[in-house]
Amino acid sequence: MISRIAEIAVNAPLSRSFHYEVPSDLEARLERGHRVLIPFGPRLTTGVCVGFPETSDVPRLKPIRRILHPDCRFDDHLLELTRWIADYYRANWGEVLEAALPPSIRSGRPERTVKRIAAQRPAELLRIEADRIRQRAPARARALEFFAASPGPRPRADVIAGIPTTAEVLRRLLGDGWIREEERQDRPDPFGDGLSCFETRVEHELNEHQVRALEILRRAREARAFRAILLHGITGSGKTEIYLRVLRDVLEAGGRGLVLVPEISLTPQTVMRFRQGLPAASIAVLHSMLSPAERTGQWREIQEGKARLVIGARSAVFAPIPDLRLIIVDEEHESSYKQESSPRYHARDVAVVRGRMLSIPVVLGSATPSLESTHNARNGKYELVELPSRATPHDLPAVVISPLDGSFYRSDGSGLVTDQLDYLIRRQLQDREQMLIYLNRRGFATYLHCVRCGFVMKCDQCDVTLTFHRGENIARCHYCGLGREIPAACPECLMPGPRKSGVGTERVFDALKKRYPEARIARLDRDVITTHRKLRTTLAGFARGDYDMLVGTQMLAKGHDFPRVSLVGILLADTGLSFPDFRAAERTFQLITQMAGRAGRGAKRGRVIVQTFFPDHYAVRCAASADYRGFCNQELERRRPLGYPPFGRLVKIVLASEDEEKLKKEAARIGRRLRESAAEGCQVLGPAPSPIAKIQNRHRKQILLKAKKAAPLQALLRACEKDLASRRSVDVAVDVDPQSMM
Ligand code: ADP
Ligand code: ZN
Is 194:162 a contact under the CB 8 Å cutoff? Predict the structure, then answer.
């Protein structure tokens, strides 16, 4: 008899699935959606069972080895969703399925368990026994009293420390049946502690705009149909309040919700707001800063249906949530929703597709919607809901543009702060009000150069300048991470001591400390905040008022609501404007608006100083006057004739190789093939050197495809599928709807 055949989407960079034999011992158990271990070429790999074909024209099928995690299976919906992603973003289905799992499950490491101990008999009996033996065995009596007072279950280590007692005493109590021990999967609560310093929640009465917006969301929820709603609310307009209330409806009706937030906004405070706003709901959090055990634990809670609400960053869009009824994508404009390695999906767009597949509403919220989403709202694909005013007593902060000159880069740091900003910082310190100081760059100095010959220290593996980190006394490449010693003299002309120029948060921190010795300053960037715990501690300290000033990078811009912050200083607003990226103006506009939105959320009206070398740029001007529409119109008119999104679609193809000659040939060949196959209206631009022409010793070239609609581009990619496969010496990466042009 022929045993059953299974179709397996294999986790390997190949674009199709393969047939395998289902051995008889698995026949009764294997279902569609199971993850399995299979022989593939000379090795074993993983894959997911996606179907059971009747026949196969492969003569001899290899058998599946075993089912991995029989208790977690992709349901039909997630199979369909991942299939769509594989198709649209030109990735392998098996790889997409793999990306949908948390890394800890993916790795196949056994899940951690903890031993927990609980009282086995009623408290009364424990007390009687304790009294009876107190003279003879005081240690045992103390332990019994402990269990009478707190029957558990609690982790074994806590019990031993809590009594305190020894393992031997516990072993005897276990043997005599007074207590019991259980082994459970470790599901630590990642946000269980350290949050009490944030203010407790007040239930506000909604203002008229909020009421209207909530009404629309409620109707969408009740309709139980797909709908994409763009919630454009200025910073502090009370979007989160609306999310909370519509989520409450969802949960009360027995459904579940998913909230996506950018990685950096997934702060303890964000989670706390949802916890306090939905006290009856169990909330799971998916965040890359969680420990593997925490992440697995949270994912299990979701998969078993115990979590009613999931809050997570990009990859949470794959969370296996049963009976999902509403998806919210907060800060939908954030480019971090796009994954920059394969599969290169955009979580916001995937959320919309997921909503359509499940026939549920998807809410996209932002103070600065992406031009793509605004365009979709203008042409009726999305429904637009606006919150045009702040929910708090004060208006948007007063924004002042403060032009910079060359002294900004003075090496003693004395020109970092303009007179205007200096004046306000001093006043804040006097009034004991808090402030945020923002800079887009980590490190101390952004580059090291020789003052005589102009030599600039670059990473020899990557075509970028090195950043000086003073704490480590090292020049570090922000692309490959490699650190190098600072040479005593210029390698070119032997002039001693390279000069450190440009500014990073480390230098700003030092300069501000020197300039305002009385100020209590904390730093917030990836160099100092390496764990979730550190992030929590620093933010909690700031919220408590331990610091006057928080200096940092993008980490400052999102997800915090500090009522006592009434000044925001943006030291350099236009770091991105000179980048070769058509979204540079949009990014600058978003950044200024978001940072400005951090000021004046409490009782006092906020002030914002925007330091810039381009005081007349429309992105800077419109952001300063909170003119989203004005910015949009100008930016759209600039993009329309160029056919850039939202007026067209792009595909970026990056080729990389250590062998420059081979790269050149292959790029030319692929370019030619694409031109031959391109339908009318499909533009093929390049190959050209990438803006960063080398990373980690690999030279890079790129080709850009442009068309009015997605379909012809998809057809072109399919037609050239074979040509676009990576070869031994040249890697080819296809990025559909790229967010970064570098
Ligand atoms: P957004 O998410 O749009 O930036 P939030 O939901 O964080 O705005 O709200 C900003 C601040 O306004 C929060 O401190 C919130 O508690 C408060 N808030 C929201 N709605 C109201 C309201 N109707 N009345 C008073 N305060 C409100
Ligand atoms: Zn490098």
Answer: no
Cα-based torsion angle of the residue sequence 571, 573, 574, 579 in order, rounded to the nearest 10 degrees: 100
Asked if residue 573 and residue 457 are part of one domain, the reply reads: no
| 133 and 101 together in one domain | no
- CA–CA dist 262, 312 (Å, integer): 8
562 and 595 in contact (C-beta within 8 Å)? no
Output the CA 112–ligand 1 centroid distance in Å.
Answer: 40
235 Cβ closer than 6 Å to some ligand 1 atom = yes
Q: d(Cα 364, Cα 382) in Å, to the nearest integer?
A: 9
In a domain? residue 643: no
pTM, entire model: 0.83
**Closest Cα to atom 5 of ligand 1:** 238
The three-class DSSP label of residue 611 is strand
pLDDT of res. 194: 43
Ligand nearest to the CA of 463: 2
Give the number of the ligand closest to the Cα of residue 698.
2
What spacing in Å lies between the alpha carbon of 725 and ligand 2's midpoint?
A: 26
Q: What CATH number does the domain containing 223 carry?
A: 3.40.50.300
Give yes or no for residue 521 having a pLDDT over 60: yes
Domain-embedded: residue 195: no
pLDDT at 193: 46
- pLDDT of residue 738 exceeding 90: yes
DSSP per-residue string spanning 699-713: EEEEEEEEESSHHHH
Helix (H) or strand (E) holding 285: strand 283-286
Whether 253 shows a pLDDT value over 90: the answer reads: yes
Note whether residue 465 is domain-resident: yes
Mean pLDDT, the chain, integer: 87
Q: Would the CB of 375 count as within 6 Å of ligand 1?
A: no
684 shares its domain with 558: no
Indicate whether 523 and 599 sit together in one domain. Answer: yes
Number of domains observed in the structure of the chain: 6
Joined together, the tokens standing for residue 507 give 């230098």
pLDDT digit string (tens) for 56-99?
888 888 999 999 888 888 999 999 999 999 999 999 999 999 99
Q: Which of 316-320, 403-407, 419-423 has the lowest mean pLDDT?
A: 403-407
- Ligand 1 atom closest to Cα of 243? 6
Do 215 and 225 reside in the same domain of the chain? yes
* Cβ atoms 56, 19 nearer than 8 A: yes
Q: What is the DSSP pairing of strand 549-552 with strand 434-438?
A: parallel
Q: Which domain holds residue 416?
A: 398-443+503-638
